């Protein structure tokens, strides 16, 4: 049995690595889009390339692969998958990407002081219309300042020695770099001095000196200023600065104007994913029947549970590898000033594919070249001596059970013509479809996948928009509760099936019960609603018909501001710091990126931040993930008995093709249309759309929380209810299905079943 264990080990490893690769692709898509400027619609089509390779080939490979050396077929398929992963990574090396050159002349012109500002007789009014200062001084404060000075500011003059002193002061103060503001230290002093003047605590002398200092700093630090503004423009939030928001629009236009003609990288990755789809047809459809041939039926649930558990852990490892690689810049050299938290960051997506490829190639080759015959066992008498006969009896030891590479139930087709082979191919699938239990099991599986696949794809978006959970944390929670709960359920289902010897109808009823539990827990999620911060922004927008531009932020240029909710002390949620009219960004903790926003025209005298937002979702999040882990555990319990029912519902010779046909139907009718179905459901609940380069509707920024929650889970429950009813149909017809009891089979020389000869009579 040692060879069986070695095969199982290799088979489990390749299944685990294959599952890692499938999940890792999800984490790599965004970086691929950014590096090669591939639009989301095209990248979604590219990711589906795996199904384009899988669907047309799985039925043929399952049929013809079952007629040959299955270990060699499995090894060949995973070798193809390993090479495909390497090919996916190759565009990073063969298609270098040049960064677009930005025309920042307009921005540089606006931050370059005019000749008037450099004169000794520059007025306060002249300083107030200088773009960087204009953006920083709150509107009300600026108007009151000009009103305070009246007409005097137009004829106010700075004496020559005072002006020279201002220039010297600029050298002493120097340039204070700030993450988001241009020379923020001096700007803050200017604001404080304006406030002091308006309170009647000072004159304009110190203010003029600070203004002159700030202007002269711009002459000496123009390159640094542009770099600082660019960093602010690519920040995940926008504040009230028309100059920086104009730069944000320039960056957006440059991205839109850049030609999306990266045909080469797209074709290479699309081809690689098609080949990957072909490669992944072999392990499951051929490996499961091969294990069935080499393991006793009573032990089969435990083996299937263990293998499925390992396979399910693959997505967890895929997310971890994706997290590691996305923290590295794609060139492995991080540009100055750019961090992994920046929205323009491109992770080292190609590295993960190379890691999986290298790890997968070794066990794949071991399977491909797995020896088909074991070492011969020397036959000796029972007492261990070398005599062949003792006391008139001959005892032949039971040789080591040989690993069966070929399907023991296969029919000999060596002498058939091509036409006869095609007829046999067609008749095999026809015979499989005739099984009522098989038809019901496959239809139920298709409905399960139709509900589950799209729901899982959009679940991170649902958690973020409805409960306010960040996407990175949503993936962690999904892995901790959903994937791990399902994995534990799979192991539990295998143990229960073997421990209680669930056979036929009992196993089918067990699947029905755990599916019903999972369905009920999903129905509970319909009522787990709350008001997150994003939801509150949407509700506030209903008052103004989702036009978030109001008089207090009309001068900020917030048209392209991304969603970044912040709140005032009353808990009122603004769409972004820009829409709150906030002109100052305060970074309290650089490591934790704890941000606060001040000098807000829409909430004067207050400091706004996310922590002030009202959020009553904490308890609902706990309840939601309790439902997730219990539901995933229940669903996992049905995996092993469901798989055994499907295998036993068809003639033994047709097990591989039954799995191939199931994979074909599930991919064609479920995994392909499911994301489109759930995407339509999500879009139907959208309140505010982001704009594309062509001013069309892009991704959704804010959803109607009630509509999203109800439509999402009602649709899931409706589809899964149909699947549960079909589980009852399967249970009704599964009374004669033999899952665990061993078959009585005639001696098979190819399988080389061991014999123990009875003592020979003396007469012989």
UniProtKB/TrEMBL annotation:
Protein's GO biological process: monoatomic ion transport; sodium-independent organic anion transport
Keyword Transmembrane: yes
InterPro entries: Kazal_dom, Kazal_dom_sf, MFS_trans_sf, OATP
The keyword Cell membrane is assigned to this record: yes
GO MF annotations, alphabetized: sodium-independent organic anion transmembrane transporter activity
Transmembrane segments: 45-66, 73-95, 260-279, 300-324, 344-370, 478-496, 508-528, 619-647, 659-678
Signal peptide: 1-19
Subcellular localization, as worded in the UniProt entry: Cell membrane
Name this polypeptide is given: Solute carrier organic anion transporter family member
Species this protein is from: Ascaris lumbricoides
């Amino acid at each position: 049995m040692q060879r069986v264990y070695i095969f199982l080990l290799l088979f489990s490893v390749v299944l685990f690595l294959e599952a890692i690769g499938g999940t890792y692709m999800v984490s790599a898509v965004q970086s691929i889009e950014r590096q090669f400027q591939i639009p989301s619609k095209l990248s979604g089509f590219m990711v589906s390339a795996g199904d384009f390779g899988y669907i047309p080939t799985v039925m043929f490979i399952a049929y013809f692969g079952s007629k040959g050396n299955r270990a060699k077929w499995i090894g060949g398929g995973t070798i193809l998958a390993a090479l495909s992963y390497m090919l996916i990574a190759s565009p990073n090396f063969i298609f270098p990407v040049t960064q677009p050159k930005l025309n920042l002349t307009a921005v540089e012109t606006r931050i370059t002081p005019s000749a008037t500002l450099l004169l000794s007789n520059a007025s306060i009014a002249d300083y107030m219309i200088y773009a960087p200062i204009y953006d920083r001084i709150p509107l009300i404060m600026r108007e009151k300042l000009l009103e305070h000075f009246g007409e005097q500011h137009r004829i106010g003059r700075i004496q020559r020695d005072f002006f020279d002193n201002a220039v010297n002061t600029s050298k002493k103060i120097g340039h204070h770099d700030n993450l988001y503001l241009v020379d923020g230290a001096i700007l803050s002093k200017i604001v404080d001095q304006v406030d002091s003047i308006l309170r009647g605590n000072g004159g304009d002398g110190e203010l003029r000196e600070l203004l002159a200092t700030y202007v002269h700093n711009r002459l000496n630090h123009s390159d640094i200023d542009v770099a600082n503004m660019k960093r602010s423009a690519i920040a995940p939030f926008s504040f009230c600065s028309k100059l920086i928001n104009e730069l944000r629009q320039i960056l957006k236009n440059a991205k839109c104007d850049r030609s999306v003609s990266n045909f080469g990288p797209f074709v290479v990755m699309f081809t690689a994913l098609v080949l990957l789809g072909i490669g992944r047809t072999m392990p499951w459809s051929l490996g499961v029947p091969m294990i069935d041939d080499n393991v006793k039926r009573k032990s089969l649930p435990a083996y299937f549970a263990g293998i499925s558990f390992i396979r399910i852990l693959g997505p967890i490892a895929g997310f971890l590898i994706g997290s590691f690689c996305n923290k590295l810049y794609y060139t492995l050299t991080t540009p100055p000033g750019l961090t992994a938290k920046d929205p323009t960051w491109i992770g080292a997506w190609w590295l993960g594919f190379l890691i999986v490829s290298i790890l997968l190639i070794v066990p794949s080759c071991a399977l491909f070249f797995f020896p088909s015959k074991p070492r011969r066992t020397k036959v000796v008498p029972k007492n261990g001596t070398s005599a062949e006969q003792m006391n008139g009896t001959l005892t032949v030891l039971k040789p080591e059970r040989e690993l069966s590479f070929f399907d023991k139930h296969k029919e000999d087709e060596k002498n058939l013509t091509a036409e006869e082979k095609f007829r046999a191919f067609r008749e095999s699938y026809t015979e499989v479809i005739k099984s009522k239990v098989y038809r019901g099991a496959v239809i139920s599986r298709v409905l399960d996948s139709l509900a589950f696949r799209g729901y899982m794809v959009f679940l991170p978006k649902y958690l973020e928009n409805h409960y306010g959970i960040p996407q990175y944390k949503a993936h962690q929670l999904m892995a901790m509760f959903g994937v791990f709960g399902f994995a534990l359920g799979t192991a539990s289902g295998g143990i229960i099936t073997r421990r209680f010897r669930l056979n036929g109808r009992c196993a089918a009823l067990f699947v029905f019960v755990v599916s019903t539990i999972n369905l009920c827990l999903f129905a509970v999620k319909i009522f787990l609603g709350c008001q997150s911060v994003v939801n509150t922004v949407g509700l506030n927008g209903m008052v103004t018909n989702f036009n978030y531009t109001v008089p207090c932020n009309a001068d900020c240029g917030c048209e392209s501001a991304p969603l970044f909710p912040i709140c005032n002390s009353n808990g009122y949620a603004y769409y972004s710091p820009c829409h709150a009219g906030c002109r100052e960004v305060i970074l309290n903790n650089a490591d934790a990126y704890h941000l606060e926003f001040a000098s807000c025209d829409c909430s004067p005298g207050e400091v706004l931040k996310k922590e002030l937002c009202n959020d009553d979702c904490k308890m609902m999040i706990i309840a939601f993930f309790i439902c997730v882990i219990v539901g995933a555990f229940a669903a996992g319990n049905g995996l092993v008995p469901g798989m055994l029912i499907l295998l036993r519902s068809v003639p033994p010779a047709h097990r591989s093709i039954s799995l191939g046909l199931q994979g074909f139907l599930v991919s064609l009718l479920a995994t392909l249309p499911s994301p489109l179905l759930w995407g339509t459901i999500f879009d139907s609940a959208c309140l505010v759309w982001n704009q594309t380069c062509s001013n069309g509707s892009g991704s959704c920024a804010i959803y109607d929380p009630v509509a999203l929650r109800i439509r999402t889970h009602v649709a899931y429950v409706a589809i899964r209810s149909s699947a549960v009813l079909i589980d009852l149909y399967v249970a009704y017809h599964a009374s004669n299905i033999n899952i665990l009891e061993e078959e009585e089979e005639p001696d098979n020389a190819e399988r080389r079943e061991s014999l123990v000869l009875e003592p020979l009579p003396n007469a012989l």
